[in-house]
Specification:
Layout: H1 11-25, H2 28-41, H3 45-70, H4 75-79, H5 84-98, H6 103-115, H7 125-144, H8 150-175, H9 194-201, H10 207-224, H11 230-261, H12 272-318, H13 324-339, H14 343-370, H15 378-400, H16 407-419, H17 430-446, H18 448-454
Helix pairs in contact: 1-8, 1-10, 1-11, 2-3, 2-6, 2-11, 2-12, 3-9, 3-10, 3-11, 3-14, 5-14, 6-7, 6-12, 6-13, 7-12, 7-13, 8-11, 8-12, 10-11, 10-12, 12-13, 14-15, 15-16, 15-17
Transmembrane segments: 48-70, 82-104, 124-145, 157-175, 208-227, 239-260, 290-314, 326-343, 349-369, 381-400, 429-446
Protein name: Branched-chain amino acid transport system carrier protein
Keywords: Amino-acid transport, Cell membrane, Membrane, Transmembrane, Transmembrane helix, Transport
């Protein structure tokens, strides 16, 4: 229910928004990657974890701040200074990636892997996954069609239940650990560049991508509670988002620690979902596995609701010919179909696309936060984005070369490894982005008064 304009929220309202933000973000990747990372990092868990948190925590928070500070209505508004066609392309690319092409199907396959796969005969697994994903996405659609109720559904009911269960698990992990990390050496690549590779592994949560759309949901939730003045809304959204994302960081740390210490009992798993199932069995037995399956299910369905809702809001605003409910149905139905491919296969196929889009998202967030310094000058946006796009293509090529057996692709990647700075770390976008920034700033300084006169501090009415 909308309230009169006010300057701040009560602590209970902060808790509601923080809980909602937490619930939106904490999904499949947040369960899978920290545990798998902990196993592989082993005795290098602290440096690897620091790198992981720098992308998995800091970037999503900055994404929310970028949306709030610019009053953008999502990634389309943020990217408009580059050009309307590019903004449309990036919006569609982001939603395909964080929606049906990768993230949303995982939200069904993760709880299935944890709760059922180990108990189902291999010959029956496809049928049970089909039934489970049908029920999961059917419930997702039902809970997503009323966009005004999303904060209540996630913040008041689903996420608090999740937090109760996960605190019980973390209590066992902290006070009854599975052992020590001593004697377990990190495996490649975490044995030589733990921070850098932890940084890259943070990509797998996809939260920096999701923040570009979840940010507007957070801003809207705060406005619905009465804080409508733009500056106060931005500050309040930042505080609530900070609380929610710091909570995610605490759980990340516990899951990474669980993964590292699980080496005392289990070998490195094929994916984090397999490891989580083993950890649940260790702590709670068969009954505990059901409890942990509930944790996974709650975490994943809250994020699925958020993704479906954000998809519906963004596409309905951009192309209002079709209703919000119609747009919500599209990612839900496609995700149901793709979920039946299998978790490991989905990750392999989608990684190249992840590395293509992520540098563009990072540079867009940074440009949005710093635009007052160069008065939103379009040349800065265009040059940074254009040169980053070249790196994005090269990054995607590295992922595709193992999937597509083409000699020219292998030759391209070999060339990039030799001659492109930071390419082997998938951080090659940094140098081109900085070059683009310098070129754009030179153009800006040459016409500074023009850009000052035309500057608007917000993006939703450019």
């Amino acid at each position: 229910m909308l309230m009169n304009n006010r300057s701040s929220l009560s602590w209970k309202q902060y808790a509601l928004i923080a809980s909602t933000v937490f619930g939106l973000f904490f999904g499949a990747g947040n369960l899978i990657f920290p545990v798998s990372l902990g196993q592989q990092a082993a005795n290098n868990i602290f440096s690897t974890g620091a790198g992981f948190l720098s992308t998995a925590i800091l970037l999503p928070l900055l994404g929310i701040v970028a949306i709030a500070a610019t009053r953008a209505r999502g990634v389309y508004d943020l990217a408009k200074p580059v050009g309307h066609k590019y903004a449309t392309f990036l919006m569609v690319a982001l939603f395909v990636l964080i929606g049906p092409a990768y993230a949303m199907p995982r939200l069904a396959t993760v709880p299935y892997t944890i709760a059922f796969e180990q108990y189902v005969k291999p010959s029956h697994s496809a049928l049970f996954l089909f039934i489970f994903s049908l029920l999961f996405f059917g419930l997702t659609y039902i809970l997503s069609v009323n966009e005004n109720k999303i904060s209540d559904v996630i913040g008041k009911y689903l996420n608090p239940l999740f937090l109760v269960l996960v605190i019980i698990l973390l209590g066992f992990i902290i006070f009854k650990p599975m052992g020590s990390t001593a004697g377990f050496n990190a495996v490649a690549p975490y044995n030589t560049a733990p921070f850098t590779n932890g940084f890259l592994q943070g990509y797998g949560t996809m939260d920096a991508l999701a923040s570009l759309e979840f940010g507007i949901l957070a801003v809207t939730f705060v406005a619905n509670l009465g804080v409508k003045e733009p500056k106060k809304n931005a500050i309040t959204t930042f505080k609530a988002g900070l609380f929610g994302i710091l909570g995610m960081g605490i759980i990340y740390a516990g899951l990474m620690y669980a993964g590292a210490t699980s080496l005392n009992h289990f070998p490195i798993g094929a994916n984090g979902g397999v490891v989580l199932a083993q950890i649940a069995e260790y702590y709670f037995g068969p009954f505990g596995s059901a409890i942990f399956a509930a944790i996974a299910g709650l975490a994943c369905i809250t994020t699925a609701i958020g993704l479906a809702s954000a998809f519906g809001v963004a596409f309905h605003e951009r192309w209002p010919r079709f209703s919000y409910r119609t747009y919500v149905a599209v990612p839900v139905f496609l995700s149901f179909l793709l979920a039946n491919v299998g978790l490991t296969e989905l990750i392999k196929i989608s990684v190249p696309f992840l590395f293509f889009v992520y540098p563009l998202a990072i540079t867009l967030i940074i440009l949005s936060l710093t635009r007052p310094l160069f008065h939103g000058a379009r040349p800065v946006y265009v040059w940074v984005t254009s040169l980053t796009l070249i790196s994005s293509v090269l990054d995607a090529a590295a992922g595709f070369k193992d999937l597509i057996k083409a000699q020219w692709l292998h030759d391209l990647v070999d060339w990039a490894i030799k001659y492109v700075p930071l390419y082997k770390y998938q951080l090659d976008f940094i140098v081109p982005a900085l070059i683009g920034l310098v070129i754009g700033l030179i153009i800006y300084m040459a016409n500074r008064q023009k850009y000052i006169a035309a500057y608007k501090p917000t993006l939703n009415n450019d």
